[in-house]
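Recall that a protein's primary structure is simply its ordered list of amino acids. Everything else, from secondary elements to tertiary packing, is in principle encoded there. The following example makes that idea concrete.
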Amino acid sequence: MSDVERTYNVLFLCHRNSARSIIGEALLNSLPHIPLRGFSAGSEPGERIHPLAAELLTSMHIPTHDLYPKHWDVFARDGAAPMDLVFSVCDKTLGQTCPNWPGHPVTGHWGIEDPSQVDGDATMRRQAFRNALHAMRTRIQLLANLPIASLDRMSLQSEVDAIGRLEAGNPVGTET
């Protein structure tokens, strides 16, 4: 299989692997006709997907039945599928020592505010999850539009770093 035809594995990391990283995995895998496959994991995975993350994904007709929090060591074991891209989506994982990933992936930080930490009424909490989903979707769409197969490693690293600097809702080139 040539690089043009291959599928690239993308791992989203978050401390509990119950909201943002799960949303990233589900969103990426819901996009048709792209050569990217999403996975997610955490350093201290929760017991289940956050109910508001599951509710939001379900409302968008994105399947959640195969999603569950898992420890990131699952993806560092011998025989694990090599990851091509690994993104931390929370500041807690950014500061932790990650395993050595098979495949020596390009890594990046796509920091997204933790919606599960928002205080307030149900409407405010649901809006926080929608905001996180919007930020993740924007970044995933930019990633999906990259000509990954034709980029060298340094160029790909530069592109994923630029995507990570985006603020939700800001177009490319207006990062803050």
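The longest helix spans residues 122-144. The beta strands are 8-13, 36-41, 85-88, 106-109.
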